[in-house]
Amino acid sequence: MRTVVIVGVGLIGGSFALALKKAGFGGRIVGVSSPRTIEAARARGAIDEAASLQAAVPEADLVYLAQPISRILDTIEEICPFLREGALVTDAGSTKAEIVGRASRRIRPGQFLGGHPMAGKERRGVEEAEPDLFAGRTYVLTPEGPADLETPAAINFVEWIRRIGGVPVVLSPSEHDEVVSLTSHLPQLASTALAATLAKRLALEKYGQVAGPGLMDTTRLALSSYDIWRDILATNAGPIERALDAYISELRDLRAGIVDARMQHEFEMAAEFAERLRRKGDENA
């Protein structure tokens, strides 16, 4: 892998570029983004040069799509005439079924391998990029079949994921979307719902000093931008609706059992899961 083209040099794309450099990548990293983002990416040292999509893609060994999902879908359509044989196209989109489905129909002559690094921040932009953003974090790969991971380009890409500290996990596109609806999308919507509930009912000017760190923790995700989440919700509606249904059902059970002996069981079950989740995170770190 000698030339990497990053389309969308924001938080994830910029962090991927910085992580490659920190891990010893000595090739060229070309950025494709808006002029303002390119300027910021140069200032951060994330990219070596900038180019248009049409100029950058023909020279790429790896094309890394780190845009919002709707733009990833558009770019998949746009890059096909410029791809060379043997090039690998991957993405960092938060949903996979629609992206992988479109890429399987359109990416020629190169190869597509869907990806989703389970890393990020509430704040966007290359200014927030970090070379260690992926360290110890799961990096989901969503091939259409096992053979997609056996090509030289895919093998090399997975090696670089490990070099930047990522932990590769392989799921099918549909399995990925079902799982992240519970592990990522539901926590976001729960945090948003909590913050929206309080915004309508709590006068911060009078009672803000009563809020403790627990509220800060549980509303952290509510800081996320709707610009990003709009595409996620639109491309994973079915699994997200099922996740919300399960969560609403659990909330109803909690409401019905506030003074019931079942509440102790719910607390104990939840605490055990939360503890196991944190142990798993420590194992990956």
Tell me the layout of helices and strands.
Layout: E1 3-7, H1 11-22, E2 28-32, H2 35-44, E3 49-50, H3 53-56, E4 62-65, H4 69-79, E5 88-91, H5 97-106, E6 111-117, E7 138-142, H6 152-163, E8 167-170, H7 173-201, H8 204-207, H9 213-218, H10 226-235, H11 237-256, H12 262-284
Parallel strand pairs: 1-2, 1-4, 2-3, 4-5, 5-6, 7-8
Antiparallel strand pairs: 6-7
Helix pairs in contact: 4-5, 7-11
How would you describe this structure to a colleague?
The chain is α/β, with parallel strands linked by helices. It folds into 2 domains: 3-171, NAD(P)-binding Rossmann-like Domain (Rossmann fold); 175-284, Orthogonal Bundle (6-phosphogluconate dehydrogenase C-terminal fold). 53% of the residues lie in helices and 13% in strands. The protein has helices at 11-22, 35-44, 53-56, 69-79, 97-106, 152-163, 173-201, 204-207, 213-218, 226-235, 237-256, 262-284, and strands at 3-7, 28-32, 49-50, 62-65, 88-91, 111-117, 138-142, 167-170. The chain has an 8-stranded mixed sheet, with helices on both faces. α6 (152-163) links the parallel β7 and β8 (167-170). α4 (69-79) runs parallel beside α5. The longest helix has 29 residues, at 173-201. The protein is globular and about 65 Å long. The two termini are 27 Å apart. The mean pLDDT is 94.
Could you name the key traits of this structure?
285 residues; alpha/beta; Rossmann fold; 6-phosphogluconate dehydrogenase C-terminal fold; 2 domains; 12 helices; 53% helix; 13% strand; globular
**Strand order in space, largest sheet:** 3-2-1-4-5-6-7-8
- Which stretches are poorly predicted, pLDDT < 50 over at least 5 residues? none
Which CATH architecture of the largest domain would you pick?
A: 3-Layer(aba) Sandwich
CATH fold label of the largest domain: Rossmann fold
